[in-house]
Amino acid sequence: SKFRDGLEKTRKGFVEKVADLMIRRKKIDEEFYEELEEILIGADVGVNTVMDLIDDLRAEVKKQRIEDASELQPILSQKLMELLRGDDDNAIRMNPDGITVVLFVGVNGVGKTTTIGKLAHRFKQEGKKVILAAGDTFRAGAIEQLEVWGERAGVEVIKQHAGSDPAAVMYDAVQAAKQRQADVLICDTAGRLQNKTNLMEELNKIFRVIQREIPGAPHEVLMVLDATTGQNALNQAKLFGEKSGVTGLVLTKLDGTAKGGIVVAIRQELNLPVKFVGLGEKMEDLQPFDSEQFVHALFA
Ligand code: GDP
């Protein structure tokens, strides 16, 4: 499956290490727990979550009188699944009577443009009419890059010249979406880290324009995070997410890291659903997040 291929590195760098440990040590003693703790923290599961996990395992070992460490694997995968599950909510909230607006936020380089292209393709495959708004007028090349993805996905991109007011681009894009009777409008925004206050003002202005033109919009504000940056991604989400009305997360480049445990940390520490994960650079490599499939792909 897509998940299995995309999670190869995490399986090798994390799951196989756990399996190894369980077979090698056999005995469940303090050293075993310490090593397990190290592996979990090394996979970016997050220190607090790891402590809780280990406590849970200790309790199970006691309760079920388990003596052989290899018997712990199904219990560990079950616990991870419980931590990940929460309320799996990967559906995009659609506007029942009109254009659905999905706004993307995230710092440069995390994979925002790529994800927009992939999502446009997904919607298109579902038979929906999609329009993209080139709202990152700040980063050199951002507009052109979005156009490349628009062409790939076969959807129209609404743009102005570099340096223009992103809110004006959004206004144009909403008008175009109305005229063409589009189903979905996907909006890119600037992801520069410097000038954070201005970026917030810019986002607020974008919000106001979209809300005024389409009541109830934006229907989703998706924050894109790069899984390969581990705990950094988590901190970004905490800093940036609270203020920008984020409704869901996209975790990219999971295929590029052995530290897929970051998904667990994110689920535990942020009260936001993971809507999609990126498992490669191609158009098809965007998967709706499903905790059960995810854990199965790792442990099965
Ligand atoms: P942006 O600056 O946030 O718009 O980032 P881009 O969309 O330009 O992506 C930055 C780089 O990450 C590009 O080289 C993409 O091909 C790559 N990328 C994006 N998503 C994924 C993913 O899920 N997996 C992998 N392996 N690479 C990705």
Automatic annotation (TrEMBL):
Q: Keyword set for this entry?
A: Cell membrane, Cytoplasm, GTP-binding, Hydrolase, Membrane, Nucleotide-binding, Receptor
Q: Write down the InterPro entries for this protein, in alphabetical order.
A: AAA+_ATPase, P-loop_NTPase, Signal_recog_particl_SRP54_hlx, SR_rcpt_FtsY, SRP/SRP_N, SRP54_GTPase_dom, SRP54_N_sf
Report the residue ranges that make up the SRP54-type proteins GTP-binding domain in this protein. 273-286
Q: Where does GTP bind?
A: 106-113, 188-192, 252-255
Grouped into one coarse class, the protein's main location is: membrane
Q: How does it sit in the membrane?
A: Peripheral membrane protein
Functional description taken from the UniProt entry: Involved in targeting and insertion of nascent membrane proteins into the cytoplasmic membrane. Acts as a receptor for the complex formed by the signal recognition particle (SRP) and the ribosome-nascent chain (RNC).
Its subunit composition reads:
Part of the signal recognition particle protein translocation system, which is composed of SRP and FtsY.
Family classification: Belongs to the GTP-binding SRP family. FtsY subfamily.
Query: Which protein, by its recorded name, is this?
Result: Signal recognition particle receptor FtsY
Q: From which source organism is this entry?
A: Paenibacillus albilobatus
Q: Which lineage do the record's taxonomy fields give for this organism?
A: Bacteria, Bacillati, Bacillota, Bacilli, Bacillales
